[in-house]
Write a structure and sequence with these properties.
The complex is a heterodimer of chains A (about 450) and B (about 240). Chain A has 14 helices and 17 strands. In chain A, the strands form three sheets. In chain A, strands 2-3-1-4-5-6-9-10-11 form a nine-stranded mixed sheet, sandwiched between helices. The two termini of chain A are about 30 Å apart. By secondary structure, chain A is an alpha/beta fold. Chain B is built from seven helices and 14 strands. The model of chain B has no long low-confidence stretch (mean pLDDT about 95). The chains are: A alpha/beta (about 450), B alpha/beta (about 240).
């Protein structure tokens, strides 16, 4: 490391120490200070680390956390970035606050925001990328899926030797031929038929001939074994596959990958994709299937986006929702619950939530009618929008509580022991703050 | 069983479906039910013909640039059907990309001029690296109704002489950011850049379209109850 890089790193480190010690926070400022002193700081770090970059719309955080656990089976120390620190400055902070490695290169597994990849690969040439999926997401901020993929590819272009480990069930990752070595993972758990995606699915055009794709089967959204009946374009050969879904509940998933049995302590088909991605990276870097089993079995804390809170005997499951594909997966997951439950939906429209609430109309709330749900509740700053959404979905008489500071009290009065709370980002923060003040949870969420 | 039935054509519903616009159909079904009417839906997409006689009402939504360009190549095959549908005073809602494609042309993401079918007299230019994004409120000059929505568009649309604006901009950008118009009305075609979606936030407009479709199809029916339906505010 050059003198300039050393000085820059030291300056960033002391600011991190100051912020962390006295202000209980600070994940991007140290990165800013370091980068200001040495704009090429990432290059210096790149020489000391083997870097894996994980990106995509949904599942970045859990895939990263699971990948770290998997690779810890083989490596003593794996560097990673905390949730939310997935932009350039947060990544610099991650490096400057890392433990020093004694010998050789250290493995770093980093979650990187789609648009920030190019800022990293400008200086660091990763050994691998993982692409989870690309869905429409807070369109007032991110734009369309093809634009997002172009941003990712701008970063990939600077690292043509990195192996891309991509979701093979997503046609967009097979739409453009790249010089990089490619490995695909996906589902191969059921027989192939010939079906089309439901009308309200995005990304169903064949990238080669622009006709509408068909599917042997769909898992969720536009993911599945796609093929084009017009030109023959089809899903690539999968190297790593989910070969069986054994048992799915809201709190656990049992499944087989490459005929090895696995269990993770979280529900939702989408989370099996995250486990599959972590498995693929592990296998690519030489971790054995048995070791991966151990990694998946350890510790529940990794599953941060879904949280169980006991509120005076009520089992409250708090789930962050931010886009329609994720929302539909959450609805599918909670419908697999055999116990009676109440359903709470909290909608805010601040910048971090997405200021356009139209996406709730792409959520399949109509499906909730399949379950006999005794009580619904709506709230948040946009309670009118979410209330009307549920009314149109056939919910006759929800409890309406615009004031999020009163939601915790209302939850205590719900008729069921189990309560599912689906909330947007700032609504999650506000509700957690209330629950923390009332002593139901200990700490705030890392923001 | 509902007394009346209406059949809706969802034009390119499998391709132009990006911004929650399907909520417009859900809202139409919701209000139709209150008007003793069952609303059934068919998606009419690529390489399919659009027979206007099969439908009483139509919805044409917005999508991503790529899908919209693919649709622009197919839609000339449906031009005659759409033209006839409009001339018979059947109600149609066109949002964003659908709105642009009914006009003469729009400018695509790469700056190329992409022809629409020109059944309405507007055209659409683009902005450099800018979009109109945010909440918007307009007032319809004929009814005095206020409409709420969310706009997110790069296109700047300019109305033709025989089109009226859907409303005058109270806050937000509207068609082009200059002339304070938002959307377009021509015969029974309602065009807008509104997401939100427009009919879930503005039930009066959904009622207006449904009533027109019912009057077209059932000219002798007594629609007093339907006409008197009170729309509760949802925004």
């Amino acid at each position: 490391m050059s003198l300039r890089s050393s000085v820059a790193t030291a300056a960033g480190k002391s600011s991190y120490w100051f912020l962390h010690t006295f202000l209980h926070g600070g994940s991007s400022l140290p990165g800013k200070i370091t980068t200001a002193i040495d704009p090429q700081i990432l290059k210096a770090f790149g020489q000391k680390y083997d870097v894996v970059i994980i990106t995509g719309t949904n599942g970045k955080t859990l895939t990263t956390a699971l990948s770290v656990r998997v690779l810890q089976q083989k490596y003593d120390y794996v560097l990673t970035n905390p949730t939310g620190s997935n932009m350039e400055q947060g990544i610099v902070t991650t490096f400057i606050t890392a433990h020093k490695s004694k010998n050789g290169k250290t493995l770093a597994i980093l979650e990187v925001d789609e648009a920030n990849i190019v800022k990293v690969t400008e200086y660091i040439k990763p050994i691998a990328f993982i692409f989870t999926n690309l869905f429409r997401d807070q369109m007032d901020r991110y734009g369309e899926i093809y634009t997002t993929y172009d941003k990712i590819l701008a970063g990939v272009k600077k690292a043509p030797n990195a192996t891309i480990i991509a979701n093979g069930d997503a046609q967009i990752f097979n739409s453009i031929d790249l010089p990089n070595p490619m490995i695909f993972f996906g589902f191969d758990h059921t027989e192939n038929k010939d079906i089309k995606a439901p009308a309200n699915t995005d990304g169903v055009l064949c990238p080669k001939c622009n006709h509408i794709l068909h599917f042997g089967f769909l898992t969720y959204g536009n993911l599945g074994s796609y093929f084009c009946p017009h030109c023959g374009f089809k899903r690539p050969e999968l190297t790593y596959k989910v070969t069986n879904l054994t048992q799915l509940t809201p709190t656990s998933s049992n499944f087989e990958i490459d005929h090895h049995q696995y269990e993770i302590q979280i529900g939702g088909l989408y989370n099996i994709y995250n486990a599959l991605a972590a498995y693929a990276l592990g296998r690519f870097l030489g971790v054995e299937p048995e070791q991966i089993k151990t990694a998946f079995a350890s510790d529940k804390k990794v599953f941060g986006r879904q949280e169980m809170i006991n509120v005076d005997g009520k089992e409250v499951t708090l789930i962050l929702v931010k886009n329609p594909v994720g929302l539909n997966q959450v609805i599918d997951m909670i419908l697999s619950d055999q116990q009676p439950f109440s359903f709470v939906a909290l909608l805010n429209a601040n910048y971090a939530d997405g200021i356009d609430t139209s996406w709730i109309w792409d959520g399949n709330f109509e499906k909730l009618q399949q379950h006999d749900i005794p009580q619904f509740m709506t709230g948040g700053e946009r309670y009118k929008d979410i209330t009307f959404r549920l009314k149109v979905a056939g919910v006759a008489d929800p409890i309406i509580e615009p004031d999020l500071t009163k939601v915790a009290e209302k939850i205590k009065a719900l008729p069921t022991k189990k309560v599912y709370v689906l909330a947007t980002y700032t609504a999650v923060l506000q509700l957690r703050k209330q629950l923390a003040e009332q002593g139901y949870i200990k700490e705030g969420m890392d923001a | 069983m509902a007394t009346y039935t209406l059949h809706l054509a969802h034009l390119y519903g499998d391709l132009l479906n990006t911004y929650g616009d399907v909520g417009n159909i859900l809202a139409l079904q919701y209000y139709a039910k209150k008007m003793d009417t069952e609303l059934t839906v068919d998606v009419i997409s690529m390489e399919e013909s659009f027979n206007p006689d099969d439908f009483d009402i139509a919805f044409f939504g917005g999508g991503q640039d790529y899908e919209q360009m693919i649709v622009s190549r197919d839609i000339p095959n449906k031009k005659n059907g759409i033209e006839q549908f409009i001339s018979e005073n059947k109600p149609m809602l066109a949002i964003c990309g659908g709105y642009q494609l009914l006009g003469h042309y729009y400018i695509g993401a790469d700056g190329e001029k992409i022809p629409g079918i020109g059944v309405l007299d507007h055209y659409t230019l683009s902005q450099n690296n800018n979009r109109f994004i945010g909440n918007i409120t307009i007032k319809n000059e004929d009814t005095g109704e206020t409409y709420h929505g969310f706009e997110n568009h790069n296109g700047r649309t300019f109305l033709g002489t025989d089109e009226k604006a859907l409303g005058t901009v109270i806050s937000g950008h509207g068609n082009n950011g200059d002339d304070h118009t938002e959307g377009a009305i021509y015969k029974e075609v309602f065009c807008s850049y509104f997401h939100g979606p427009i009919l879930t936030r503005n039930g009066e407009l959904a009622k207006r379209m449904l009533l027109k479709a019912l009057k077209n199809k059932y000219p002798d029916a007594d629609l007093t109850k339907q006409t008197n339906l009170q729309i509760q505010p949802t925004f």
